Amino acid sequence: MTDQQPPRPLVRRHHWIVRITHWVTVLVLAGMITSGLQIYEAYARFGNRGGPLLPNPLDGAQFPHWSRLGGWLAGALNWHFALMWPLVTAGLVYLGYLVKSGEWRALLFRPRDVPGALAMAAYYLRLRREHPPQGKHNPLQKLAYSSIYALGALAVLTGLAIYKPTQLGWLTALFGGFQAARYWHFWTVWIFVAFTITHVVLVFVVDPASLRAMITGWYRGRFPSHD
Amino acid sequence: MTRRQTPRRHDAKLHEVDRRAFVKVGLAGAGAALAAACGWDGGGAIRPLLLDWSRVNDWVGEKVLFSPTHLARTYSPAERSAMLPSYFISDMTPMLRDPERWRLRVRGLVEQPLELSLDDLMRLPRTSYTVKHTCVEGWSAIATWHGVPVSAIVARCRPLGVARYISFESFDAGYSNGWDLASAMHPQTILAYGMNDNPLPPAHGAPLRLYSPTKLGYKLTKYLVSMTFTDQRPGGYWEDQGYPWFGGI
To answer: Which of B6, B11, B20, B41 has the highest number of chain A CBs within 10 A, making it the mutation to test binding with A?
Structure first.
């Protein structure tokens, strides 16, 4: 369908800081989720002993062996607490880069992105045939990338609330107490998983050239212009 | 209980992705899969590194996050949980043959070693509080505890300047825990002889147990027989098997 068009330009797309923090996050998050599933197994429900439980379809679930890291509770905890450092470091380095370079403007979803987001949604739902014009990221991507960063922050904060519920009692109280903080921490996992599946599918279906851009930094694909 | 599953392969068409890029992604994926495989605890190479790193986390917990004055939230007795699970290492509930002869021995790097009976301990300043118990497994429960602050024992045995740790020892199959002095001196760290307005039951460590809402349950030694002040960091039953040493919350 694009055979008749002039050759696509090769453009510089992702700074090395973005590429490194992206792939570090992929590996660290994989370790965080797998060690987290091992930790979950030790008490696979949410609520004080002898009290009401929070609604959870995964009560008592044991996840497949291949999906758990650490071997047992202590091993999984040590993985989880060690990986906390590179996860937070990657998140802060990435945020610092976005702020310093001004690239946050191309990523942050703002109210003015709402009409464009609706047009993109219509395209994905096949209510619209043409892919709406876009720059580096379309409004739905902005929404996804803004939300996923916020989700990462939520995962870290709920994690700290569980890690030190006495010393950081104010934070634990903010999430509704120790058991509620565990509950939200657990749900961030499934949102991360859903995001990752959608993200990878869209990369291959819509814009496979963006994978190369996230590895080498160079992009030659259908959306060459920057915002 | 464990199910093994073979991950499905997707042969995606990789338009416009150069071979080098594909290999890199493949290696990253393989690394993640390897790490996740077989409930890996890091093996001989990484497990020691994880344990070293756990000591870094201990240091942060002890020196940065722990406050010697911040008190854990307390609850009203009406909020007590209907049940509090109990654990011990022995095959059966550890119980003394002759409770009358039981003494708490306070020893090690102290000016004044002590031998205290339960009556002696009950004559010392008494603290009661209703707090949330937090287990490393992820469960929690609220209960009331009655006892003497560890700081009151410290005031009487007068540790030497070089004493930086206390080892709390039990008659439950050698179970023990090592504590830093700052955590032990926290006003809510007590030697508990009562629970929920009653004498401490055997399932929860009778006649005397360590209690504090600033630590995970596995740090709260039950069935106490002695406290030893040391200048070396003492190990502990679960700590020696890989659980975080500080265990502060």
So the answer is: B41
Q: Indicate whether A6 belongs to any domain.
A: no
Please check whether residue A3 lies inside any domain of the structure: no
Q: Is residue A71 part of a domain?
A: yes
Dist. CA A187–CA A206, nearest whole Å: 28
Average pLDDT over residues B219-226: 98
In terms of residue numbers, what domain contains A170? 11-48+55-219
Structure tokens at A61: 């679930």
Query: Does residue B177 carry a pLDDT above 90?
Result: yes
CB spacing of B81 vs A72 below 8 angstroms: no
Looking at residue B192, which CATH number applies to its domain? 3.90.420.10
Task: For residue B62, tell me if it sits in a domain.
Answer: no
ipTM: 0.88
| Average pLDDT score over residue span A49-60 | 95
State pTM to two decimals: 0.88
A179 min Cα distance to partner chain B (Å):
8
Write down the H helix ranges in chain B.
Answer: 19-36, 43-60, 118-123, 150-157, 181-184
**Which residues in chain B have Cβ-Cβ distances shorter than 8 Å to A48?**
81, 132, 139-142
Report the domain count for chain B. 1
Number of domains in chain A: 1
Q: Cβ(B192)–Cβ(B147) under 8 Å?
A: yes
Chain A residues within an 8 Å CB radius of B65: 164, 167-168
Instruction: Find, among A130, A138, A35, A131, the residue nearest to A87 by Cα.
Output: A35
